From TrEMBL:
It comes from the Bacteria. It comes from Nocardioides dokdonensis FR1436. SUPFAM superfamilies: Nucleotide-diphospho-sugar transferases (SSF53448). The keyword Glycosyltransferase applies. Residues 11-170 form the Glycosyltransferase 2-like domain. InterPro entries: Glyco_trans_2-like, Nucleotide-diphossugar_trans. Signal peptide: none annotated. The keyword Zinc-finger does not apply. Keywords: Glycosyltransferase, Transferase. GO terms for molecular function: hexosyltransferase activity. Its EC number is 2.4.-.-. It is an enzyme of class 2 (transferase). This is Putative glycosyltransferase EpsJ.
Length: 368
């Protein structure tokens, strides 16, 4: 369905919690959007600081902004509350410590004018210490303008973010989409379901979101060494994988398991040296559950992390810790050498360590 002469109302849901230092910049960026008509639904998730009062002050000056005050129920619940109150035919999300470029929603909305296009997604830049950098993997996923089905671009399932996308509200409601509540990393299960359910979706090369990486370590994505964080990560990965498997495409499932689901494991592997016993046991359990029948040696991880993944699968904790300690001390490509079976990485293991099979250390043609 194409838009009529009058542009449809676009609703942006903004959950707010303990972001008084960042919220004004976020709201200012939304008010500066070139797309109109626009409403901003701010959900104060029981914030302990002045965030709620800041949002109320903005709403008093700007009729586009509505503020809802709730108890502290978490990010997923706050987003769902905002959706329930949003009135627009188009639906987007923004996190309250980030910034949306002025043309972002206009660019995304234009892409939704196409026939049977249910959602549009654009690229992002990470904003850290004043520098804006487009992650290479996002640039790869968004390198050209495309309107496709999931079977034509399954790797886009790695674009798990809630906030660089725009949805038709009718599509959101028809497929009963919502954000998981009471769990971290709630973005991936929902965005996975959305990509799978969409008749077609638009992938855009334009940067539509500035993601702030906080240097104070308060972001939930910076707490990977906790058991609670890892447990939530495994839970949401299982939820997303279940949706992909139910979709029924072996090709999509293989790409998702190898190139998407494994994509962030290297950040957890770096936590192995010195990790608590309970955290290690949970890491081993999750890796075996998700990749035990296929092995991470087939994944898209870099060579040293494929090796580490294999060691985790085998329960070889001290060897995995040794590899990660070595990699931390020697940034960049690890040494390699040729064997009769092909090139392999050359990472020292502790004296007396059991042998490692060729497939766990093998280099692929593009890695040599």
């Amino acid at each position: 369905m194409k838009f009529g002469r009058r542009a449809p109302l676009l609703s942006v849901v903004v959950p707010v919690y303990d972001v008084a230092d960042y919220l004004p910049a976020c709201l200012d960026s939304l008010l500066a959007q070139t797309y109109r008509p626009l409403e901003v639904v701010v959900v104060d998730d029981g914030s302990p600081d002045d965030s709620g009062a800041i949002a109320d002050a903005y709403a008093a000056r700007h009729p586009e902004i509505t503020v809802l005050h709730t108890g502290n129920y978490g990010l997923g619940a706050a987003r769902n509350t905002g959706v329930a109150h949003a009135r627009g035919a188009l639906l987007g999300f923004a996190d309250s410590d980030d910034v949306v470029p002025p043309e972002a929603y206009a660019v995304l909305a234009r892409a939704l004018r196409g026939r049977e296009v249910d959602l549009a997604t654009g690229s992002i830049v990470r904003w850290e210490d004043g520098a804006l950098v487009e992650p290479p993997w996002m640039r790869r996923l968004h390198h050209e303008r495309r309107t496709v089905r999931i079977e034509e671009h399954p790797e886009v399932l790695g674009d798990v973010f809630a906030w660089n996308k725009l949805y038709r509200r009718s599509f959101w409601d028809d497929h009963a989409l919502s954000w998981p509540e009471g769990v971290r990393y709630e973005d991936q299960p929902t965005t996975t379901r959305a990509f799978l359910a969409a008749r077609r979706f638009a992938v855009l090369p334009e940067v539509v979101y500035h993601w702030r990486i906080r240097s104070d370590g308060t972001s939930i994505t910076q707490q990977r060494s906790s058991v609670e964080d890892l447990r939530d990560r495994w839970r949401t990965k299982q939820m997303a994988l279940a949706s992909v498997e139910a979709h029924g495409s072996p090709e999509v499932t293989e790409v998702f398991r190898d190139r998407v689901l494994a994509g962030d494991l290297h950040r957890y592997f770096t936590e192995i040296p010195g990790c608590p016993d309970e955290w290690w046991a949970l890491l081993h359990e999750g890796v075996v559950a998700l990749w035990g029948n296929r092995s991470l040696v087939h994944s898209g991880l870099p060579p040293v992390h494929r090796l580490t993944g294999w060691l985790v699968e085998q329960g070889r904790r001290s060897d995995a810790a040794a590899v990660m300690t070595y990699a931390a001390r020697h940034p960049g490509p690890v040494p390699r050498h040729d064997t009769p079976a092909g090139a392999v990485i050359d990472v020292p293991l502790p004296d007396g360590a059991a042998p490692v099979p060729h497939e766990a250390v093998a280099l692929r043609a593009h890695e040599r």
